[in-house]
Design a protein that fits this description.
By secondary structure, the chain is α+β, with helices and mostly antiparallel strands. It has a domain at 14-119 and 174-213: Electron Transport, Fmn-binding Protein, Chain A (Pnp Oxidase, Chain A, Roll). The protein contains six helices and nine strands; from the N terminus they run ααββββαββαααβββ. The protein has helices spanning 3-9, 28-42, 85-92, 120-129, 132-140, 150-164, and strands at 49-55, 61-67, 70-72, 75-81, 95-102, 107-117, 175-189, 197-204, 207-213. Strands 1, 2, 3, 4, 5, 6, 7, 8 and 9 form a nine-stranded antiparallel β-sheet that branches. Strand 1 and strand 2 (61-67) form a beta hairpin. Helix 5 crosses helix 6. It is globular and about 60 Å long. The chain binds flavin mononucleotide.
């Protein structure tokens, strides 16, 4: 099939499930947990892979994939480089949006909220749980900066590896976590005839309101 034919003709019907404002859980974190649990069993790939959108002072949105590493009622945690482009944008505007897409379940979840660094203790604890190679890569990476060549990157990795001599590599100050504290959740379930279910939760005076949106 040609690309044009695929783009113009392929129409998938979504029939895997349904979502009702009368039966969703009252707490959006619990609803997320329930869906994440299903995604771990049924979704292909990495169910914790999500896209993070940020907007810096130039008001131009950017988006990239991340791996969610923890979540609870305080928010959704990911780890990255504090000198990266996303970090620069978060310093200018500490708000972001996370998007999860679970194709096999025909579901997406959208989260919007403020973003704050996690505590140093949380960053250290997670860094120490990473394999040595991932710690070395995080230490030498100048994420989002131009790299002269692949060879330069590999040399930096090899030098840091040799210097560590198998000793634990300490978390560099430029690496750590962020927590997105959601003020809005959307749970989207694909339905037949493009009449999808969209249930949103919004926080008002410490309470979560629930409503359905047109698809
Ligand atoms: C599936 C997947 C997971 C990723 N997980 C992370 C992650 O957890 N942390 C991270 O900093 N980058 C991760 N990346 C790389 C980012 O998408 C991105 O390239 C990098 O963070 C630099 O983004 P920035 O220049 O906008 O800051 C991941 C990429 C993919 C495709």
């Amino acid at each position: 099939m040609s690309i044009d034919a695929y783009l113009n003709k392929t129409r998938k019907e979504y029939q895997q499930g349904e979502l009702d404002e009368r039966s969703v859980l009252a707490c959006p974190f619990s609803q997320f947990r329930a869906w994440f649990d299903e995604a771990m069993t049924h979704a292909d790939g990495e169910p914790n892979a999500c896209a993070l959108a940020t907007v810096g002072a130039d008001l131009r949105p950017t988006v990239r994939m991340l791996l969610l590493k923890a979540f609870d009622e305080r928010g959704f945690v990911f780890f990255t480089n504090y000198s990266s482009r996303k970090a620069e944008q978060l310093a200018q505007n500490p708000h972001g949006a996370l998007l999860f897409y679970w194709n096999a379940l025909e579901r997406q979840v959208r989260l919007e909220g403020s973003v704050e660094p996690v505590t140093i203790e949380e960053s250290e604890a997670y860094f120490e749980s990473r394999p040595l190679a991932a710690r070395i890569a995080a230490s030498v990476s100048r994420q989002s900066e131009p790299a002269p060549s692949r060879a330069v990157m590999e040399e930096a990795f090899a030098t840091c590896s040799a210097m560590s001599q198998g000793m634990p590599v300490k978390r560099p100050a430029h690496w750590g976590g962020y927590r997105l504290v959601p003020a809005r959740f959307e749970f989207w379930q694909g339905r037949e005839n493009r009449l999808h279910d969209r249930i949103i939760y919004k926080q008002e005076n410490g309470l979560w309101s629930i409503e359905r949106l047109w698809p």
